[in-house]
Write a structure and sequence with these properties.
about 35% helix; about 10% strand; 2 strands; two-stranded antiparallel ribbon; 2 helices; about 70 residues
């Protein structure tokens, strides 16, 4: 039973993405560059929309437009 709860908590923790460019430090290696390039679009104050970097996205699309 504990194993199921632990896996559920772990999966829920990975479901969110990185929304602020200062949090790209959590990404490793070249993913840090991808994260910065993705979230730099948010500095346009909504002209391009709001983007979120999701390093664990199953579809392979890591830079996701949320608005």
């Amino acid at each position: 039973m504990r194993r199921v709860i632990w896996l559920a908590l772990l999966a829920a923790g990975c479901a969110h993405g990185i929304k602020d460019i200062s949090d790209c430090d959590k990404a490793f290696g070249e993913k840090r560059l991808e994260c910065g390039a993705c979230l730099a679009q948010n500095k346009a104050e909504g002209w391009l929309g709001l983007y979120e970097y999701r390093p664990d996205e199953a579809s392979g699309q890591r830079c996701v437009r949320v608005k």
